[in-house]
Q: What sequence folds into this?
């Protein structure tokens, strides 16, 4: 009898272990661009029970995620989250680059070798130098897993999809259709049908009006809101910016959810022998990216409606696949666009930094030392780009030249730190410069990287009528949540790295981490 009981206990133990260790049938990675953990806290009382609250109550919640590099933006955040590596490794260092030869800004994903489907834009993931979670899933499954990404913008869609994905879709800025690139092979029939049917965004655009979804008295989380009237925003077809504007409203998130529903309805997700992956991007920033607008009713309404969108998405996943068979991951992007202008007559510590004037004086200084030549290509994104060919032709040691220029810039009012490209390449940088090192790639960055002191404003000399902008670099509180698939509910308040999220997802999937990732999975993520 004792022997029988012992055997029964052993069998049950093995059964429980097997139940605990099953891999998910589906991974849904939800990224909310510009998500703020403090805003979730402020607006929490207006949420329902099955959106944000469900994730926070039933998931493993990491409350403090750090990206750990300078100039976090949309593209760098997505590339880091999905590769588990820093920009110095994956090569994506910003959402926009400046091409000094062509004198224009370009996307880091611009690729003339590929045409667009439902778009005039030419994009591919080839500039991303590391594998993503989806790429590793494709390798492990020998291509049998389906991997797709849906996002408002091309950069977030492509970077969350990766190189080997089946497809990446974003809303085109000119026609409002769900667009992709011919880099990915084909468009699912249900996406084609959606784009060309009566439910497409262009067919419904004139009916969309953004008005408060709560009674006016409920918008009381931010006491700095001064508007006394309810807002109303419409989106007129064939007007410049109608679709980019819509993408920064709650309707952009609703369009993402509508297409995600098509994939879950017709894409057979979670029914294959190997897991599938669907990456979904929502938006939680300011309407129209307008600076100085973080204290308004629109931002609270955005979060309130996003909560409803999450509820709808989670319920649909549960219905089609089952949350017990799905790993849901939610994270933000670690930044919030926050440019502001001071009220008339207000003064704070600091001053105005004039890039054009600074570059002119720097070039004069270098000419006094090295001769009458144009030594500077330009200034962009707080980086000075020197004329490398002129320096090479003059047979000047690049390290010496950069150090001389850096010494001069350090004397400028408002400049806190100056780091040189050669110092980052040679490894002579210290911990203070680590954010510059991690946030830039050795090809394509400027020769001199500048950090301004707090309160200093960048003056736009090309548009002298514009007020100088104060750009804040405060860390944005950002959570990461792992939910479903037997993940134990818990709250973890220690600081974690954004690069630790990808290997944790691949650990639950039982595949290798992305090839450029050298982080371990988060130890708290254990399936019940």
A:
């Amino acid at each position: 009898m004792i022997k029988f009981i012992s055997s029964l206990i052993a069998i049950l133990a093995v059964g429980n272990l097997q139940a605990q260790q099953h891999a998910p049938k589906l991974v849904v990675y939800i990224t909310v661009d510009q998500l703020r953990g403090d805003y979730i806290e402020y607006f929490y009382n207006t949420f329902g029970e099955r959106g944000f609250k469900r994730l926070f109550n039933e998931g493993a919640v990491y409350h403090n995620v750090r990206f750990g590099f300078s100039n976090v933006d949309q593209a760098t955040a997505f590339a880091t989250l999905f590769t588990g590596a820093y920009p110095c490794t994956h090569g994506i260092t910003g959402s926009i680059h400046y091409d000094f030869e062509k004198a224009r800004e370009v996307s880091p994903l611009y690729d003339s070798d590929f045409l667009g489907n439902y778009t005039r834009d030419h994009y591919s993931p080839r500039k991303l130098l590391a594998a993503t979670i989806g790429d590793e899933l494709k390798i492990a499954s020998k291509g049998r897993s389906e991997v797709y990404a849906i996002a408002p913008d091309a950069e977030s869609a492509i970077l969350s999809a990766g190189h080997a994905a089946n497809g990446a879709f974003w809303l085109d800025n000119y026609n409002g259709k769900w667009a992709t690139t011919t880099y990915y092979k084909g468009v699912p029939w249900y996406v084609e049908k959606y784009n060309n049917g009566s439910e497409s965004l262009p067919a419904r655009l004139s009916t969309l009006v953004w008005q408060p979804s709560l009674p006016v008295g409920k918008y009381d989380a931010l006491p700095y809101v001064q508007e006394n009237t309810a807002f109303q925003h419409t989106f007129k077809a064939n007007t410049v910016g109608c679709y980019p504007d819509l993408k920064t409203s709650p309707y952009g998130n609703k369009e993402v959810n509508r297409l995600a529903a098509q994939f879950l309805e017709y894409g057979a997700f979670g029914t294959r022998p190997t897991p599938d992956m669907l990456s979904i991007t929502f938006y939680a920033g300011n309407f129209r990216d307008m600076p100085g607008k973080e204290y308004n009713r629109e931002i609270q309404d955005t979060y309130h409606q996003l909560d409803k969108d999450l509820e709808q998405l989670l319920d649909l996943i549960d219905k089609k696949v089952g949350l017990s068979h799905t790993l849901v991951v939610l994270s933000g992007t670690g930044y919030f666009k926050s440019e502001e202008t001071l009220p008339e007559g207000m003064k704070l510590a600091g001053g105005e930094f004039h890039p054009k004037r600074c570059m002119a004086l720097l070039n004069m200084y270098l000419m006094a030392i090295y001769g009458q030549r144009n030594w500077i290509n330009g200034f962009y994104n707080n980086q000075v780009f020197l004329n490398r060919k002129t320096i090479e032709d003059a047979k000047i040691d690049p390290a010496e030249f950069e150090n001389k220029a850096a010494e001069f810039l350090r004397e400028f009012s408002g400049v806190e730190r100056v780091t040189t490209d050669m110092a980052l390449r040679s490894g002579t940088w210290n911990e203070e410069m680590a954010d510059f090192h991690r946030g830039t790639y050795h090809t394509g960055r400027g020769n001199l990287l500048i950090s301004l002191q707090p309160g200093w404003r960048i003056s736009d000399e090309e548009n002298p009528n514009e007020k100088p902008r104060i750009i804040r670099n405060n860390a944005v509180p950002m959570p990461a949540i792992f939910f479903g698939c037997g993940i134990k509910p818990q709250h973890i308040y220690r600081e974690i790295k954004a690069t630790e999220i990808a290997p944790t997802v691949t650990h639950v999937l039982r595949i290798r981490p992305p090839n450029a990732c050298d982080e371990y999975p988060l130890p708290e993520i254990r399936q019940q």
Notes: The chain has 18 helices and 22 strands. The first strand starts at residue 26 and ends at 33.
